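A.,

Following up on our hallway conversation. Structure tokens first:
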């Protein structure tokens, strides 16, 4: 048995925790491409996230119990259609998005997480639609005005989201290890809260969404020669539990395992699947 480790990276509020909870529901039920090889050591953590979803709400970022948890969550997974019994270890460092934010802002990453990254062959990189933590790049005039008002502090000091994402790609380029025999490490860019998009934008697909919203980042992931990158759009339950009461009600009355979907840019047209494990399955399928 060999084992591969993949990590979850992304800024605060990018959808990591909620995706993990939904992913756990799917791998535990064993219906998707990826299945749990056995129960994780720290099952309470994912069960707690899941219980929020089952009660009809996203796991809140303000939940101190979840956010201050310092466990290094990991679960062993296997591929349903694989002939071998190869196990894949999914590792979630710290779960605190602030870690990645600090790493980019200070160009420093704690030794412990550095070694986690250096032991991983792939990563899920999260970016969320309509997050209030997203920072748009400023045009020159606005930047100038903010500088006049606030000096070096305030919004002018914030790193635009797409610059942040490019920096994370750079981290991954320099740390992820090649999976055997000699392929490039894979990075699945997961665009979360896909359900929040209007029909037109959604129809364009996740690649097109990134090109419009974060052109610098979209170009960066096309250019990289060290990584193999694929973009996915994900809605963990298929709608918005926060602001859409009608959806929330129908979701609570329905089946969590039948909710949610993944979109990806296929061969010329868009592919949609109800298997929420797909981005991780693609990472490890090799
Ligand atoms: N509409 C919608 N919102 C989502 C989805 N996934 C996450 N969110 C929102 O994103 C917020 C942050 O998610 P969280 O998992 O806490 O992000 P983290 O800080 O990266 O762990 C949640 O509170 C939800 O409001 C989704 O699939 N659909
Ligand atoms: Mg979180």
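Then the amino acids I'd put at each of the 286 positions:
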């Amino acid at each position: 048995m060999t084992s591969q480790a993949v990590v979850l990276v992304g800024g605060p509020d990018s959808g990591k925790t909620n995706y993990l909870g939904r992913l756990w529901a799917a791998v535990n039920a064993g219906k998707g491409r990826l299945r749990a090889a056995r129960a994780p050591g720290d099952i309470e953590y994912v069960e707690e996230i899941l219980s929020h979803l089952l009660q009809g709400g996203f796991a809140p970022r303000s939940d101190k119990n979840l956010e201050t948890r310092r466990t290094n969550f990991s679960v062993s997974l296997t591929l349903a259609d694989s002939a071998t019994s190869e196990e894949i270890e999914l590792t979630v460092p710290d779960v605190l998005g602030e870690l990645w934010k600090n790493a980019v802002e200070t160009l420093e990453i704690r030794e412990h997480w550095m070694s986690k990254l250096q032991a991983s062959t792939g990563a899920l990189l999260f970016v969320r639609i309509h997050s209030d933590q997203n920072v748009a790049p400023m045009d020159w005039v606005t930047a100038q005005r903010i500088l006049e008002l606030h000096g070096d502090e305030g919004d002018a000091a914030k790193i635009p989201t797409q610059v942040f994402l490019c920096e994370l790609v750079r981290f991954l380029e320099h740390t992820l290890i090649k999976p055997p025999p000699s392929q490039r490490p894979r990075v699945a860019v997961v665009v979360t809260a896909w359900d929040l998009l209007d029909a037109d934008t959604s129809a364009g697909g996740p690649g097109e969404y990134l090109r419009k919203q974060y052109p610098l980042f979209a170009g960066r992931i096309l250019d990289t020669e060290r990584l193999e990158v694929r973009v996915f759009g994900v809605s963990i339950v298929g709608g918005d539990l926060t602001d859409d009461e009608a959806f929330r009600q129908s979701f609570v009355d329905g089946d969590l395992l039948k909710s949610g979907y993944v979109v990806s840019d296929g061969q010329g047209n868009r592919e949609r699947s109800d298997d929420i494990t797909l981005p991780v399955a693609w990472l490890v399928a090799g």
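The first strand starts at residue 3 and ends at 10. Curious whether your intuition agrees with the design.

B.
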